[in-house]
Amino acid sequence: MKTINVKINGENYTREINEDMRLLDFIRDELKLYGTKEGCGEGECGACTVIMDGVTVNSCMVMAFQANNKEILTIEGMEDEKGLHPIQQAFLDEGAVQCGFCIPGMVLSAKALLDKNPKPSRKEIKEGISGNLCRCTGYNKIVDSIEKASQYLEGEDQ
Amino acid sequence: MKKRGFGYGCIFYGTGYGNGFPDISRSIAELDTKGHINIYVGATEVGQGAKTILGQIAAEALDVPVEIVTLIHEDTSITPDAGTAAASRQTYNTGNAVKISAEELKKEIIVVAKGLLNEDHLEISNGVIRSNTSDKTLTLKDIAEASGGGFLRKDGIFQANTTEMDPETGQGNPYWPYTINAYAVEVEVDTTTGIVDIIRAACSQDVGRAINPSLVEGQIDGGFAMGLGYAIFEDINLDKGRIKHNRFTNYLIPTALDMPEIEKIIVEDPESTGPFGAKGIGEPVMIAAAPAILNAIYDAVGVRLTEIPVTPEKLLKALKKREG
C-alpha cells in the first residue's frame, strides 16, 4: 500500500492505494467519478483522457501513484457554478455528440489544445483530437464545435 | 508519385426488417396531470437521435411546443415494444407509431374540450385549444383536470408493409420504403507507399424529409467515416475463426486526421407513408463510401481492386502486378 495526495478538479484527496492501481481505476472506483470512460485499456482510444499538470494523459496508462502531488482535471471539473464550460456548450450547440462515450476525452483534449493554442486551424484541431477515437460522429461536427468553442472563449476573455 | 482520382458510388437500400418479417412499433401518448405530454416507446437511443426526433414528431402531430413533450423510452416495464434500433427503422416505423398515438390523443383532447366549451369547431394550436368560431380557449392543464385528474392515454401501432419474396420468381414487396444516395470522393494515391488519402467528399442523401437536419448531417459524417474505414483500413484478419486484429494497434479505424471535409446534401422527397415524409438513413449513409473510394482509386491509378480493405500492401501488389 502507498499513500498519495492528488488534487482532482480543485479538491485535495489523500488515499491509501495499491501500487498496481491505475489512475483510471483510482478516478472511477476510488473517487466514484464515472465521467472518465474506459475504452480499450491500452492507450489507443483516448476515452480515458484526463489532464494531468496541463498535459493530456490516457489514465489507463498512468499508475495512480504516478499522480502523487499532481493536479488532475476530469470531465466533472469542466463545469463551474456558472454552468457548462464553453467547450461543452459548443459540443451541444453543434450537435457533436452521438453515443457520447468518447466525448469526455474529446472535451479534455480540446481543452488542452485550446489552453495552448486558443485559435487553432482545422488541421491543428484534427491533430489535437487524433488520439481520441470516435465510431459514431465522423469527427467533423466535433471539429466544428472546437472551432466554435475557440470563439466562445475569445468572447469570454474580452 | 502521388496521383489523384474521382469516384462515385450510388446505392438504394430497403429499410425495416423486410422480406415479410413482422415489423411492428408501438407507442403510447399521454396527457399528464400537469398538462404535459409523455410518449412511451421501447425505442432505444444509441446516439442516432431517436429520442430527439420522436419527441419532435409527437409535438408536430399534436401542435404543442416540443419542450412540453417528454419521451420515456427503453424501460420495458412501462414502455410498449417498438422493435430494435436496427434496420434503419426507428424514424420510419416508430416515428409512425408515435405520430398515430399523438393524433389519437389529440382527438381525445378535442372530445373533452368540446364538452367543456360546448363548441364543435376546436383545434390545438401551439399547445392551446382554440375555438374557430369564438375566442374561447382552454389549456392542456384544463383538459387534464377536467378528465378527473387522471391521465388521458392513447395507443399507436404501426406495421410496416413487407411481404416475402416469391422464391421462384424473385417478385414481391420485401422492403418499404427504400432510401437512395449518391457519394462522390476525390482521393490521392501514393504509388510508392500504397497509402490512399481521401481529399474531399460530397454526400447527397435522400431522407424523405429531414425531421432534424443537424442529426442527418451527423449521421452522414459518421456513416462516411465507417465506410472509409471499411474501404481502406479495417481488417479483422480472420485466421481459423480467430480474429487476429483484435486491438486498435492493428485493427485501424479512422481518426480525425483521416476524415475529409464533407459537403452534405440533404435531398428531400417526402415518402407518402413516412411520418411527415421521413425515412431512415442509419445504414444507407455508410454504404456508398466504399464503392466511391474504390472507383476513385481506379480513376487515380488504373487498377480495379475487388477486395476490401484496400490496404497499402494490397494496393502496391496490384500496382506491381499491372506493371508485370
Automatic annotation (TrEMBL), chain A:
PANTHER family: OXIDOREDUCTASE WITH IRON-SULFUR SUBUNIT (PTHR44379)
PROSITE patterns: 2FE2S_FER_1, 2FE2S_FER_2
Oxidoreductase listed as a keyword: yes
Keywords (A to Z) from UniProt: 2Fe-2S, Iron, Iron-sulfur, Metal-binding, Oxidoreductase
Pathway: Alkaloid degradation; nicotine degradation
Naturally occurring in which organism (per UniProt): Alkaliphilus serpentinus
Designated name of the protein: (2Fe-2S)-binding protein
Pfam families named in the record: Fer2, Fer2_2
